[in-house]
Amino acid sequence: MSKPYFIPPIDEEPRMPGSEAELDPPPQWEPRYKGSERLKDKVAIVTGGDSGIGRAVAALFAREGADIAIVYLGGEEDADAAETKAFVENEGRKAITIAGDLGDVDFAKSVVAQTIDAFGKLDVLVSVAGEQHPDTDLGDITPEQLLRTFQSNIHSMFYLTQAALPHLKEGAAIINTTSITAYAGEKELLDYSSTKGAIVAFTRSLSAQLAPKKIRVNGVAPGPIWTPLNPFGGSTPEKLATFGADTPMGRPGQPNEVAPSYLFLACGDSSYMSGQVLHPNGGMIVNG
């Protein structure tokens, strides 16, 4: 390969994240309360902003006064991205959609360049996009799948953050998405869980590096959340049948129950927090 970037064959794995419009019941992603301008006139990049948690974050940030660059894979997800963009604009804010694969370093650079061209600045970087492929046996994880999962979940985070840093100033916030699997493990998601552990370490280490610049870096570790990721190939049918039932609350979470964690970490309410991870996971205790 001329560069460390792997494009999987079309028929190798289900395409992710899939269309949110096809989910039954539909996820709850719209903000549940009025905004209070906690992100007034800020500019945010939100990856995975077409659907799921990313869509809920983009919608809530817009309600709180931010303009949004919605980054997503493209293709089947175009309609979802357009709906997210329309919501942002209906909130009186500006939005652009940028489609492509963040595992490609050149695309990651392009995302930041397009955001700066459109809005002139960048205040908040939110990385949500990722993928997972269930395997019950370690031996079933191919080298291609391993590379692809790390490329989508953690390499992309390095690339996008590297591109964004020259534009982030004092008071900026970086928010990374890890997972409960980084703390509790998941026997059918060995490669995915490994990337999420790497994200925790990346978040803590980058926080230490950027603290002198007064740029905060935190993370969110969701539990089972009802998004397209699991129904569109990210979970086995057996797991999907009882998705979220093993949490103390006995149900999966909704995207708009997770988005406020990102808002808290993006705004001044969390001005004395960096290197931390919030755990919207239905009451599971992970001591992380």
General description of the model:
The chain has nine helices and seven strands. The termini are far apart. It has a seven-stranded parallel beta sheet with strand order 3-2-1-4-5-6-7, with helices on both faces. The protein is an alpha/beta fold and 288 residues long. Helix content is 38%, strand content 11%. Residues 5-14 have low confidence and may be disordered. The chain has a single domain (37-278), classed as NAD(P)-binding Rossmann-like Domain (Rossmann fold), CATH 3.40.50.720.
Under CATH, the homologous superfamily reads: NAD(P)-binding Rossmann-like Domain
CATH architecture: 3-Layer(aba) Sandwich
The portion of residues assigned to helices is 25-40%
Give the N-terminus to C-terminus distance in angstroms.
38 Å
Class by alpha and beta content = alpha/beta
Shape label? globular
Q: How many H/I helical runs?
A: 9
Unreliable residue stretches: 5-14
CATH topology: Rossmann fold
In short:
This protein is an alpha/beta fold.
List the helices and strands and how they pair.
Blueprint: E1 43-47, H1 52-63, E2 67-72, H2 78-90, E3 95-99, H3 105-119, E4 124-127, H4 143-164, E5 173-177, H5 181-184, H6 190-210, E6 216-220, H7 230-234, H8 237-241, H9 255-266, E7 277-278
Parallel strand pairs: 1-2, 1-4, 2-3, 4-5, 5-6, 6-7
Helix pairs in contact: 1-2, 1-9, 3-4, 4-6
Short descriptors:
288 residues; alpha/beta; Rossmann fold; seven-stranded parallel sheet; 9 helices; globular
